Amino acid sequence: MGDERAEPARDDDWAALERVAAGDADAFTPLVERHQDRLVALCQRFLGDREEALDAAQEVFLRVFCHAGRARPRGRMFTWIYRIGVNHCLNRLRRRRIVRFLSLSPPAAGETPAIEPASDAPGAEAAAIARERWQRTRRAIDSLGANQRAVLILAKFEGLSQREIAATLGISEGAVESRLVRAMRRLAAAQEGAPPRVATRRARA
Amino acid sequence: MSTDDDVREIRALLAGNRRTGGADGDAASALERAWHALELPPAAAAPAGFARRVAARAGSERAAALGLPLSPRLARLAAASAVVAGIAGGIVLGLVSTATASASEGVESDVAWAASSFAEELFDGLAAAAEGEEAAR
Known about the structure:
The complex is a heterodimer. Chain A is an all-alpha fold. Chain A has ten helices and no strands.
C-alpha cells in the first residue's frame, strides 16, 4: 500500500493484538489510535458521509477486537484491517442500494452529503470551486456500482497498486484492471455527457 | 501515489486495455482526463476520544459475550436454588398448614364436644322430665 511502503514494519501491532486476545483490553486503545485516521478516511471515501464513516470504522475495529484470537499474523496488520474495512463498507453500500430499491424511490438530488471546503482553502471563491469539484467527484463515485467504486477508490484515493487491490478485494489483477477501466469509462462518458460505453462482454453482463 | 505515478499507472492500465481492444486513443485521453478530474477533500482525522470510545464498547461487548457461555451455569444454579427454595417453602407451608389444621381441628372438636354435650343435656333433661311426668301419673 502507498503509505505502508514508506513505513517500517509494525510487528508490535500483532503483538498488541495477541495481548488483546489474551484479555488485555487496554492494549486495544493504542492499536485503534494507530490506525483510526486511515480507516476513517477509507470509510469516508467509500461511504461519502462523515458520521456513517465513523460508525463504520467503529464497527470494523469491534470486528478486529472480536477476531483478535483468530487472526493469523501475516504481513502488515493494517492490510488485514483494511480488508475488513473495505468489505464492511461494500456491505453497507449494498445494503443501502437494497433499501433504496425496496423504497422504490430514486436517489434524491440532495442525497450526496455536503462537503465542507478545506480550512486551508485560500479564499471563498477557491473554496467554492474546490467544493464544487469534490461534489462532482462524489456524485461520480456514487453513480458507480459497489465493485467498481471499490477498485476506483483504492486505486485513485488510497494509492494501492493493482496487486494490492487484488489482494484486498480477493480478486484477480485482471479483474481489478477490467473494473477500473469500466469505472473510468463510465465516469469519462458522464463527464462528456455521453452514455457510458460498454466494451467488454463481461461489462455487458 | 504521486501524480506521476497516477499517470503512469493509468497509462499502463489503458495500454493493457488497448491491447485487448478496449480503448482507442481518444477514449484513452478521455479516461485520463476523467482520472485527473477526480478529486476529494483531504479526509479529516478521527475525532478526539474515538479510540477510547471504541475500546470501551469493545470491552463491554466482550463482557456481554463472556456472560453468554456462563448463563447456562447461572440458569442451572438459579433453577437449583428455586427447587431448594420450593422444597423449603413447601415444608414450611406444610408445617404451618398442619399446625393450622390441627388447631382448627381442636376448635372443631371442642365445638363438637360442646354441641354433643348440649344435646346430651337436652336429651337428658327431656328424659328426666318425661320420667317425672310418668312418676306423677
